[in-house]
Amino acid sequence: MLFFLAVILLALAAAGGGYWLGTQTQHGGSSAAAPATSAAAPVRKPLYYRNPMGLADTSPVPKKDEMGMDYIPVYADEDEAPASSNNAATLKISTEKIQKLGVRSEAAALRVLGRGLRAAGRVEADERRIAVVAPKFEGYVERLHVNATGQFVAKGQVLFEAYSPELLAAQREVLLAAQGAQAMQQAGSEAQRGLQQLAESGLARLRNWDLSPAQVAALQQTGQVQRTLSFASPVSGIVTEKKAQQGMRFMAGETLYQITDLSSVWVIAEVFEQDLALVKPGAAATVSLDAYPGRRFTGRIGYIYPTLKAENRTVPVRVELANPGGLLKPAMFAQVELAVGSAAPVLAVPESAVLDTGLRKLVLVQLKEGRFEPREVELGAHAQDYVEVRKGLRAGEQVVTSANFLIDAESNLKAAVQGMAPASAASAAH
After folding, report:
1. 124-138, pLDDT tens digit by residue?
2. d(CA 287, CA 337)
3. 117 to each of 111, 261, 330, 334, how far by Cα in Å?
4. Among the four 124, 342, 359, 404, which has the fewest Cβ within 10 Å?
5. CB contact set of 96 (below 8 Å; sequence gap of 6+)
6. Domain 91-112+344-428, what fold?
7. Strands, E, within 53-157: which ranges?
């Protein structure tokens, strides 16, 4: 019995020793393989350590900032500067952060920056289309044919009939001279020639008094004096002024009617002094009025007045446009949009791409994925959400158009700008 118990104990001891030996052999193999694995992976050594807050401060050895934060190691593959940039003040942002910030870019390209300059204006009658009816002799209004202001009249339509003693006397002189010349045909040529000259001078006076050729011809043919003279409208338009009254006496040169042709009107726009250099005669203009919402009338700048209104520092600019149907009425207020800007294409970027530091204008140029360079630019005209870039950028370069302020916060753009070399902007200029 004791013999069998001893055999069992010896077997258990042998099994335990074999298990221990196998375990040690396995561990020994792992520890031997570990150095080989470590040797396969290269050890990354930081070039330097940068400030965790993005300040322009680096250290060759690990250290902490004033708030106790560890400086961030910068490795060789992270500090590799792009070959396309001569500016050391570049910003680097990881691809993950770029996607998170929603960074978008657009290439600087040549564009035609036509824009609209808005100004308040008022509708006025075209002064060149205003006509007045003023008799050149003294007389009386015998009969009115047009007796209401605002009435439309056609060219040649009779406005009124006038009676004048001077007119009657002049007609009689013409008839008497003509009859005398005819009766003196058998007499001497001198007398006949004198009567003919008298008749001709009388006819000339009637023509100077605005008698039509038909009225003069009727006088010569019928030989009868016309008691009244009809006055017709010289143009088609609206009666904008009427002083004539039935039976009234008028003096020579007194205006009895004013007729205005409103088929074409002016809009006088008040342009502020600082915008005057952008306005050019012949440029297109668009007019809108509260009376006709959604409707726009087009015309062109006809004249820039030579005087400045001191009370509001504006210069009147005349826009000439057609007035179909007479919709535009004098004294209406209007909103005028004047087309300004050059017709030639210029290098332009979206306005959202420009960062204004207060002292200079900057854009963020995307050099490659995750690399951005702040670039100082000189700007020109603004139009249609784009701005002209006169210096500092080349066509085709990608500029950041969105999330600029987030990039600023993420990479501390101010520190990068302070590190910009003075020659960096010059190297990027045209």
Report:
1. 999 999 999 999 999
2. 6
3. 18, 29, 23, 14
4. 359
5. none
6. 2.40.420
7. 58-59, 72-74, 91-92, 104-107, 109-111, 115-125, 130-133, 139-144, 152-153
- In terms of C-beta density within 10 A (0-12 exposed, 13-18 middle, 19 or more buried), how is residue 249 classed? exposed
CA distances from 125 to 153, 214, 262, 317 (A): 16, 32, 7, 14
Phi, psi of 402 (to 5 degrees): -140, 155
Rounded to an integer, the average pLDDT of 413-425 is 49
**Nearest Cα to Cα of residue 105 among 377, 376, 401, 332:** 401
Core vs surface per residue 317-348: b (16+ CB within 10 A) or e: bbbbbebeeeebeeebebbbbbbbbeeeebbb
**What is d(CA 240, CA 40) in angstroms, rounded to the nearest whole number?**
100
Rg over CA atoms, the chain: 48
pLDDT digits over 347-382, tens only? 989 988 888 877 788 888 888 777 778 888 998 877
Tell me, yes or no, if the two domains 91-112+344-428 and 118-126+261-340 fold the same way. Answer: no
Task: Note the residue count of the chain.
Answer: 430
Determine contact, residues 82/74, Cβ cutoff 8 Å. Answer: no
Tally of CB atoms within 10 A around 368: 12
Report yes or no: 135 and 250 within 8 Å, Cβ to Cβ: yes
Burial of residue 229 (number of CB atoms within 10 Å: 0-12, 13-18, 19+): buried
Question: What is residue 215's three-state secondary structure?
Answer: helix
Reading phi first (left if > 0) and then psi (alpha if -120 to 50, else beta), residue 401 is in alpha
Handedness of CA 352, 353, 357, 360 (dihedral sign): negative
Residue type, 364: L
Domain ranges of the chain: 44-80, 91-112+344-428, 118-126+261-340, 137-147+155-233
Q: Which of 193-207, 320-334, 362-376 has the highest mean pLDDT?
A: 320-334
% pLDDT > 90, the chain: 31
Q: Is the pLDDT of residue 12 over 50?
A: no
Q: Check: CB of residue 141 under 8 Å from CB of residue 426.
A: no
CATH topology of domain 118-126+261-340: Elongation Factor Tu (Ef-tu); domain 3 (2.40.30)
β-strand partners of 106? 399
Q: Phi and psi for 384 in degrees, rounded to 5?
A: 55, 45
When the pLDDT of each residue in the chain is averaged and rounded to a whole number, the result is 78
